TrEMBL record, chain B:
This is histidine kinase. The keyword Phosphoprotein applies. The lineage of its organism: Bacteria, Pseudomonadati, Pseudomonadota, Alphaproteobacteria, Hyphomicrobiales. It comes from Microvirga aerilata. One of its GO terms (molecular function) is ATP binding. Transmembrane segments: none annotated. GO terms for biological process: phosphorelay signal transduction system.
Length: 134, 326
């Protein structure tokens, strides 16, 4: 269940949360091309929480603002409570939002439009770390 | 409402307090007669309005202003002084005082009205500033989200293309948009929107692009802080992006380690940007360089900023130099 890592494999089970459908698909594509599995794509906080409850997830990739609200920060706290690492991909450059995001202890905060290579590099660092842990 | 009065003469203080509290009946009044009582007030709760004399036995009104503003930058400040002359008034206003009233028996009513209107003006300005910040944040967020959407659309297009060279063109376009976005971020950070820290932008751009090399390429950056106006930063930023991409594309062939170096400096009235790569074959192939889109963009943008671009190929790689008059 949530929080348990996939063993014997460096393939990550990833949840993508972004309310912009095309951007969510783009992130999901990059995750899959990097050899990982997309468990689900959620556009709202509620949908994302459902996935967190139901599925085994190794990494949550979160947008900060969902439908105009800073729900990504709430979600980050929910993922932390379940010991699931998270990272942010956000269009917000506001220093106070960034501070709040950093306080949740993310693996990385990528600024939109993000560098694909940077996302792939965060994924591979995490996969290697998980692999060595297993 | 907290109002602080600073004046050595207790009678003047009492009269000023009476006049001003007529305008602000619920205000908490504090008085400072020396440095200790001033510091006590500031440490306890800084005032929202300051009324101070200029000539004080223990300091002067300008220094009081600095101390109060350090404790509460939003404090409304009015100088109320007997040493009234135009020079002092100009000095006080230039230093940042919201207004200035010369002491006199008939001036107390004027002081009260001046404090009231300065306070209201200050509040209006603050509200305007806050709503401007809000609009700015929203615009920034929208712009970056839309740029992300453009890149996502490009990626979808790229996946429908059969030829590697076509896909490469789309990927290059994505990188150009990313470079513009990095510039945009620097503008936002500068809080000026007319000038940008170009060194910070270059470093960010190079590090983003180097991610593609998987750590095989080492970066040396010697960037002397140069702030550039927007109309120069955008074209020069795009030129730097093209050069870095061209250099990185050909650096580090066969997975051998490569090296990229960037140097930015201002010599007299000229800005000089040097970028070189030491991987074999680094830089664009000279035959295609003249006709490639990257080179055409570099040349066209260089004309726009009246700059000169030179490229030297040598055995170890290639060295670019861009000179721009400032």
């Amino acid at each position: 269940m949530a929080g348990e890592r996939s063993s014997m494999s460096e393939k990550l089970r990833v949840l993508v949360v972004d309310d912009e459908a095309l951007v969510a698909d783009f992130i999901a594509d990059l995750v899959e091309e990097a050899g990982h599995e997309v468990i689900g794509i959620a556009a709202t906080r509620e949908k994302a929480l459902e996935y967190l409850e139901r599925s085994a997830i190794d990494l949550a990739i979160l947008d900060i603002r969902l439908k105009g609200r800073l729900n990504g920060i709430d979600l980050a706290q929910a993922t932390r409570a379940r010991e699931i690492p998270h990272m942010f991909i956000t269009g917000s450059g506001d220093p106070s939002t960034r501070e709040a995001a950093e306080a949740t202890g993310p693996l990385a905060i990528l600024q939109k439009p993000f560098s694909q290579e940077r996302l792939v590099s965060v994924l591979s660092q995490m996969a290697q770390r998980d692999h060595s842990l297993n | 409402m907290r109002i602080l009065f600073v004046d050595d003469d207790p009678d003047t203080r009492a009269l000023a307090i009476r006049a001003v509290t007529h305008e602000f009946p619920n205000a908490t009044i504090r008085e400072a007669m020396d440095l200790t009582s001033l510091d006590e007030v500031l440490q306890e709760r800084p005032p929202e309005i300051l009324v101070t004399d200029f000539d004080l036995r223990w300091t002067d009104g300008i220094k009081i202003f600095d101390r109060v503003k350090a404790a509460n930058p939003l404090c409304c400040t009015v100088m109320f002084t007997g040493t009234g002359n135009e020079e002092l008034a100009v000095r006080a206003l230039k230093h940042g005082f919201d207004d200035y009233v010369v002491k006199g028996s008939k001036q107390l009513r004027r002081l009260a009205i001046t404090v009231r209107s300065a306070y209201e003006r200050n509040n209006r300005l603050r509200e305007l500033g806050e709503s401007r910040d809000l609009v700015l944040k929203e615009l920034y967020h929208r712009l970056h989200n839309n740029l992300q959407l453009v890149i996502s659309l490009l990626r979808m297009t790229e996946k429908t293309l059969g030829h590697e060279s076509d896909r490469q063109q789309i990927a290059d376009l994505g990188r150009r948009i990313q470079a513009l976005s990095a510039l945009q971020e620097e503008f936002y950070r500068s809080e000026d929107f007319r000038r940008v820290n170009f060194s910070s932008f270059l470093e960010r751009l190079a590090r983003n692009l180097l991610e593609t090399s998987g750590g095989r390429i080492e970066l040396t950056a010697e960037l002397n802080l140069v702030e550039l106006p927007v109309d120069l930063a955008v074209p020069l930023g795009l030129i730097a992006n093209e050069i870095l991409n061209a250099t990185l594309k050909h650096a580090s062939p066969d997975d051998r380690p490569g090296h990229l170096s960037m140097r930015l400096e201002q010599i007299a009235e000229t800005l000089i940007l040097r970028i070189s790569g030491d991987g074999a074959g680094s830089g664009e192939d000279p035959d295609t360089a003249k006709t490639g889109l990257g080179m055409r963009l570099i040349q066209r943008l260089a004309t726009q900023i009246e700059g000169e671009v030179s490229l030297e190929h040598h055995a170890a790689g290639a060295a670019w130099q861009v000179s721009v008059p400032l």
